[in-house]
Amino acid sequence: MPRHTDTKHILLDIARELFAEQGYRVTTLEQIAARAGITKPAVYRHYSSKQAILEALLKQADQQEQEIFTEDTSLPLRDRLIQVAHLYTGGFNPLMAVITGASDKREQVAEAEMHARKHMRQTLARLTGLFEREIQQGSVQGDPQILAVMFSSVIHGSQMHLSRNPILQEKQILEASIDVFLNGCLRDKGQLQA
């Protein structure tokens, strides 16, 4: 039998998959338990509610994001943006998970949406900081907040298309989207070549 922490991680992985597949609103603790091969009461030994699972996923996504923004600051902008994009397309996109699906439990959805939006504001603040540094270094031009929102929009739009068109290659679409985005804000277009 898996250890306590292993089960917690397994439950998070399963919840992430289910939230991505069908949305936060329609995913139930019963579905998470069934996919994990455990009972619903066993889920409660690790998480008090579906909301608690979402909060754990948001915390995990926040930690991964912090690592991207603080690790190797010498990494070229394009590479860092690709890391951010992969975090949200290959990992957990909290806002997309909350937006998809439907439910009668509006209070739970409203609270989950509040947490997801808070996380997205933190992401935008980190992206704004990244673009501020790039502007100061002279590699990017524009308003850092607008660049952060535009980049986030490009990635979320790409993610929506990828989820509807599984034939498309995620890596190619994301990198092409980032290149188009950067082409509009780089001072020296030669920097785009990796």
Automatic annotation (TrEMBL):
| Domain HTH tetR-type: from-to ranges | 5-65
What Gene3D superfamilies does the record point to? Tetracycline Repressor, domain 2 (1.10.357.10)
Identify the InterPro entries for this entry: Homeodomain-like_sf, HTH-type_TetR-like_transc_reg, HTH_TetR, Tet_transcr_reg_TetR-rel_C_sf
Keyword tRNA processing annotated: no
Highest taxon, organism lineage: Bacteria
Q: Which Pfam families match?
A: TetR_N (PF00440)
Protein name according to UniProt: HTH tetR-type domain-containing protein
Q: What is the lineage of its organism?
A: Bacteria, Thermotogati, Deinococcota, Deinococci, Deinococcales
